[in-house]
Design goal:
By secondary structure, the chain is an alpha+beta fold. 38% of the residues lie in helices and 19% in strands. It contains 16 helices and 21 strands. 47% of the residues are buried. It binds flavin-adenine dinucleotide (FAD).
Length: 510
């Protein structure tokens, strides 16, 4: 039986990303109709402002113009994450920091880590990436004449999550003919074989579809409540389980740093994200280690003002993921699928990747479902397991022991067997591509190098003879000189975005 009617439940960023991916792949078939169902009574999560570079490929493939994204979503460029105070202040000083840049730490394509490890010529490993200088100087990664979706260093975006959903929705409806309805699903009807048959709505109506995409957020309407697909709970390894989120307006002349700040505190960390019109901040903490009152005090300290009467919003976060992304005639994406705290902005990344995978693997007929489901389930589990390793890495290799939280995340919390093996291996050898056998290890060599050596991981320094050493030293010196000059030649991010806005206002037809 041909799959003709597809329902996406949820109008958050996961729902609309999925609508675009499915639309892109399936709208050429006139028999297929895709409907997105969204409740007016159940709000979207409304956070999620940081992305990774992968999003550029998807936006481009959906036919969304980069200018529209930047202007419509109050977006800024993100070239890196700046991790501050993730190391002991006694050893590394107050306000110690390192970057995980989106550019590889390989000067002119050469991995010179072996030389850096032995000599530590330039104290910060992060300086081996050209993006370091762009970040430190608050520059735009693009020139005014850079082609769409291309920069001099690699980048992603920060954006207003609600405006991003609107942009995706407009695109999906106009370009791919996605139907959009407002209904609240209050009952899910099942076939005899346990697959989903249809929905009953609060409005009294009901509707049946052939295939379902569950993007219902943390409520997990289909996978959690209806199909009862087990949730693999990871709260024993990722202890941060709560966030306080606050958005504050900014002035149009304020500098815009082109990175996410991730500032560690005694029981977690704070994200700080600049948009063109506002600043998004959030205190992420472990509720086992910090009370809500203390969290508010810590957040007030970060902001330099009392937030007692602010509209800071408390958001509980559950670390883990569903055992399956695909069950019978349903797939789950976004928060309904799983979540790990937002340290590396992995949520939209996983959603985007998995939505693309599902769209390309969408079976034509119901009978084909088991063939597709098995491989997608294996891939999704692999992705999640390795994402959890990467997030845990930021905590477990820290030398902070100043609070119970830091003692627990460094000494008490279990690591996966693979992470344990890798950390052991990297005591003796530098991470390289062959250490990451799977394509679905999304964060691999360059990311691990940035975090491990940003945090001074003690890999044994290899012997380096003068010939090789001089070559590496020369490469580093040339790279530093070139990167500084390149960053100096770029505009400040604020100026670049302001000029773009003025240019579009003058030149775009009314
Ligand atoms: C504190 C925090 C910070 C985050 N920061 C980042 C970040 O920096 N980067 C990143 O990539 N991600 C981040 N995320 C994750 C990001 O917010 C989500 O991935 C993204 O917003 C997608 O959410 P969603 O669409 O899955 O769910 P939601 O936004 O919650 O949408 C759920 C939708 O389902 C609908 N719905 C629910 N039940 C029903 C029903 N019964 N009938 C009809 N409709 C229904 C709702 O109306 C809504 O439209 C963060 C998350 C949290 C909690």
């Amino acid at each position: 039986m041909k799959i003709k009617r597809i329902a996406i439940v949820g109008g958050g960023n996961a729902g609309w990303l999925s609508a675009n991916h499915l639309g892109l792949e399936l709208s050429r078939d006139p028999e297929i109709e895709i409907t997105l169902i969204e409740s007016k009574d159940i709000p979207v999560i409304g956070v999620g402002e940081g992305t990774v570079p992968f999003i550029r490929n998807s936006l481009q493939s959906f036919g969304i113009s980069e200018v529209d994204l930047l202007l419509h979503c109050d977006a800024t460029f993100k070239t890196a994450i700046k991790f501050a105070n993730w190391m002991s202040t006694e050893k590394y000083g107050k306000d110690n920091f390192y970057y995980h840049t989106f550019d590889a730490p390989f000067p002119s394509g050469y991995d010179v880590t072996y030389y850096w490890l032995g000599k530590k010529t330039e104290a910060y490993y992060s300086k081996l990436s050209a993006a370091y200088y762009v970040a430190e100087r608050n520059r735009s990664p693009k020139r005014t004449d850079s082609p769409p979706y291309k920069g001099l260093v690699n980048y992603a975006y920060h954006f207003d999550a609600a405006k991003f959903a609107t942009l995706l929705a407009d695109n999906a409806k106009k370009k791919f003919g996605i139907k959009h309805i407002y209904e609240t699903v209050n009952h899910v009807m099942l076939h005899d074989d346990g697959s989903v048959k249809g929905f009953q709505y609060d409005s009294g109506g009901h509707e049946e579809f052939d295939f379902y995409i569950d993007c219902s957020g943390f409520s997990s309407l289909l996978f959690g409540k209806t199909l009862k697909v087990p949730f693999i709970d990871k709260s024993d390894i990722i202890l941060t389980d709560t966030a306080l989120a606050l958005q504050t307006p900014t002035d149009s002349y304020e500098e815009l740093f082109p990175y996410t700040k991730a500032v560690a505190h005694g029981a977690g960390w704070v994200w700080d994200i600049p948009l063109t019109t506002r600043r998004g901040t959030g205190l992420v903490y472990s509720s086992q280690h910090m009370s809500d009152d203390d969290a508010l005090k810590e957040f007030s300290k970060y902001h330099g003002r009392d937030l007692e009467n602010s509209n800071a919003r408390k958001i509980p976060m559950k670390a883990g993921f569903r055992e399956k992304i695909w069950e019978k005639n349903c797939v789950t994406l976004g928060l309904a699928h799983g979540f790990v705290e937002p340290l590396e902005a992995t949520s939209l990344f996983i959603t985007d990747f998995c939505a693309g995978m599902i769209a390309k693997k969408m079976p034509l007929h119901k009978e084909e479902i088991p063939v597709y489901a098995k491989s997608c389930n294996e891939i999704a589990t692999l992705i999640w397991e390795r994402i959890f390793d990467f997030i845990q890495l930021h905590y477990c290799i820290s030398d902070r022991r100043d609070t119970q939280f830091w003692r627990d995340v460094t000494e008490q919390v279990q690591l996966s067997d693979l992470l344990k093996e890798r950390l052991e291996l990297w005591k003796y050898s530098i991470p390289q591509r062959t250490d990451f056998a799977s394509t679905f290890d999304f964060f691999h060599t360059e990311s691990y190098l940035s975090v491990l050596y940003g945090m001074d991981y003690p890999t044994r320094a290899p012997a380096v003879n003068d010939l090789v050493g001089n070559f590496a030293k020369q490469k580093i010196l040339e790279h530093l000189e070139h990167s500084r000059k390149q960053a100096d030649s770029l505009m400040s991010q604020r100026k670049w975005l302001t000029e773009l806005k003025e240019y579009v206002a003058k030149n775009r037809p009314a």
